[in-house]
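User: Structure tokens for this complex, please. No commentary.
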Amino acid sequence: MGQETFVYEFVGKKLTEGSFQWSAPSNIALVKYWGKREGQIPANPSLSFTLTHCKTITRLDFQLKEISGISFDLFFDGQSKEEFKPKIQKFFERIRPYCPYIDDYHFVIHTHNTFPHSSGIASSASGMAALAVNLMQLEQGLNPQMDANYFNQKASFLARLGSGSACRSISGAVVVWGAHSEIAASSDYYGVPFDGALHPIFQDFQDVILLVDKGEKKVSSTVGHDLMHQHPFAQQRFEQAPANLSRLKTALETGDLEAFIAIVESEALTLHAMMMTSMPYFILMKPQTLQIIEHIWSFRSQFQIPVCFTLDAGANVHLLFPKAHKTRVMEFVQEVLAPWCQQQHFIADEMGFGAQKIDL
Ligand code: DP6
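Assistant:
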């Protein structure tokens, strides 16, 4: 489906005022998005697991106004947040060609994350996704004929314009973003639920986020994506990612944990290898990140328990494993891994299904 499908056309209905509230989860990429082209088009397809507990809850109040133009107030945890406004302003400007009705309203946005702001967990994915679904609910109010499929696709399309990875936080437990020949209906414009038959071993996967460094990232994802433009290994990386996605698809369908682990850990280290080999180069891992990885590898080989790790664009480690091993793995987390975390903090999350409407 082309982008023109997402241009809203006036159907004759106007809403004067109202409020909606939605939650949208964070997601963790297994095949990484790192590198993009103009217009938030990913340089390669990516695949993620949707999370449950790490999420953003956003309420959108809207009121019809006289003067046309983008206008909003933003509150984060109940406090007015001027410093977050430029990002939202830019988001509104980007989505305006597709949602011209936003010019008709004044919006008040109240947003809150279930995870601490300073946890090093990116809030842009869940935050942009939560805002996008609220706006789609407004659009559905203007166009009641809209079906659920269009709602989700356009919500993902809009979220992508806010932050690429946000398009994988709308709907589905496993989501692919970026055109890939083996994923039906996959698109560079929005995320689609993984179309394969997910093997039961992956259906309730756990993700314990080990909070190594809760500070602000020194290099933003936006800068990191940009550095892929003149990166010496970019071409190989953009060929490797779709090949890894093909192999991961097979592993997810057959329940091949060994292949899953190899692909997922290699993707995580490749992401950081890209950072270390860009110019300027940078390192987001901390010594504790490597300590945790070493412990995960020892635990896996000693007890033959299929745990593995992935990394996002930071020092935190995501520990992934099937639910069947939860009791033993949580003992390992408490005793061995937590001491390497900042203030021993970690978040036990698990696979979820996407954004949810919250009745007001
Ligand atoms: C390492 O989605 O945060 O988490 O599109 O510039 O907002 P922007 O980038 P963002 O990048 C995420 C990068 C990643 C990998 C991933 O989630 O696929």
